[in-house]
Design a protein that fits this description.
single chain, alpha+beta, 3-stranded antiparallel β-sheet, 6-stranded mixed β-sheet, tt1808, chain A, 3 domains
């Protein structure tokens, strides 16, 4: 018995059921293998959805990342599922392309996330609903066997080379696509599907740690956890920042506040600001502020711009560059223009108005239908 055994009852899932079962069994081989096979099983399952649901069309690229980011796909899945799928992809990529060890906890979470997606798929498209939850006690376990990076990459490429192109799958299932779309619509009306939330600790250790590692941060070296800061507004005057990211000179580049997945990451905004205040007093430099629930990431450069949602944690080079721009930017209160380029008064007023808007912290400005923005080198494009 394994968590994915119920799939054997449904012939319609044959294209990915075996891959799911093999991913779970691979815990006997290595945790990195589990990460790779979970990613492959997810890819086959996502392609099954694209191939069988009439509301979906093959995007320009049919790789897994393109498929899960497809607007129509994200529109039909439960919104809480997307970060789970992203985790499976990221962990699989890490196993193939980096030398970082995959832990048992990471491999198991990847399997659990895969199971939740398969459970959603079953909830949408099956006649007989499987209501069992993921059972960790069913998992195989063993001491981790080492596999070289080349062996894992070869495994990944060998398995992928056997897959059909998505366009072929769609053509083969032309008659069934309308039926499955109708079944999904009907099942969503008659059934209930809930995605179980994670605790704050598990969120931080499983999702955020992986995000940091993929962005090049080394936990315990240039990324420190539970960093004690002094000067907090409490009786002890002490607090503990979840993560602090340090630059090459040993000064903090950013502070990261983590909240559990069911909480809006902005709940940690004020707490992160207090940590940044303390770190600025200690090191003489204002760090950037991130706050996240492991699924959504917000960046706040409170000396320059309002908060904004970002895709993830920045690399060290990106943070260094952002702070360099903040430190060396010049005021836009007075702008000098070249009369050879702009010689009319209304044009000069328009340029000054845009610069005033940027000076106030807005990242974009619109004038006469043309967008003005700052490029990566700090120059304004008109």
């Amino acid at each position: 018995m394994c968590n994915f055994s119920f799939l054997k009852k449904h012939d319609q899932y044959n294209s990915f059921s075996g891959a799911c079962i093999e991913a779970e069994k691979s815990l006997l081989v290595s945790y990195a293998t589990t990460a790779i096979l979970s990613r492959r099983a997810l890819e086959l399952a996502v392609k099954w959805v694209f191939g069988n649901d009439g509301e979906l069309k093959a995007p320009y690229q049919d790789n897994l990342s393109s498929l899960i980011h497809d607007y129509n796909f994200r529109n039909i899945i439960d919104i809480k599922l997307f970060p789970l799928l992203k985790y499976i992809v990221q962990l699989g990529n890490s196993a193939v392309h980096t030398n970082r060890a995959i832990t048992k906890e990471q491999a198991v979470l990847s399997l659990e996330n895969l199971y939740k997606f398969i459970a959603w798929l079953d909830y949408c498209y099956s006649d007989e609903l499987n209501e069992a939850s993921f059972d960790e006690s069913l998992l195989y376990d063993s001491e981790q066997h080492k596999k070289t990076r080349k062996e894992l990459k070869d495994l990944y490429e060998r398995l992928g080379s056997k897959d059909k192109k998505l366009e072929e799958v769609i053509k083969e299932n032309k008659e069934l696509r309308k039926q499955f779309t109708a079944k999904r619509t009907e099942n969503k009306e008659q059934r209930e599907f809930n995605v179980e939330q994670l605790s704050e600790f598990k969120t931080r250790k499983m999702y955020i740690d992986l995000e940091l590692q993929l962005s090049g941060w080394k936990i315990g070296k240039d990324c420190e956890e539970e960093v004690e800061v002094k000067g907090m507004p409490n009786e002890q005057e002490i607090g503990f920042a979840d993560y602090v990211l340090f630059g090459k000179n040993g000064k903090p580049l950013a502070v990261v506040e983590a909240k559990k997945t069911c909480v809006d990451p902005r709940v940690g905004k004020q707490q992160a600001k207090l940590y940044a205040d303390c770190l600025e007093k200690q090191y003489g430099r204002r760090p950037l502020i991130f706050y996240t629930n492991g699924f959504e990431y917000c960046l706040w450069d409170d000396r320059s711009y309002p908060e904004r949602q970002v895709l993830g944690i920045f690399t060290k080079e990106e943070l260094e560059w952002t702070i360099f721009k903040r430190t060396n930017k010049k005021s836009l209160d007075i702008v000098y223009t070249d009369d050879k380029i702009i010689d009319r008064e209304y044009q000069k007023r328009a340029v000054q108005a845009v610069c005033d808007t940027l000076e106030k912290g807005h990242r974009k400005s619109l004038s006469h239908g043309d967008r003005f923005w700052e490029d990566k080198n700090g120059y304004f494009n008109f």
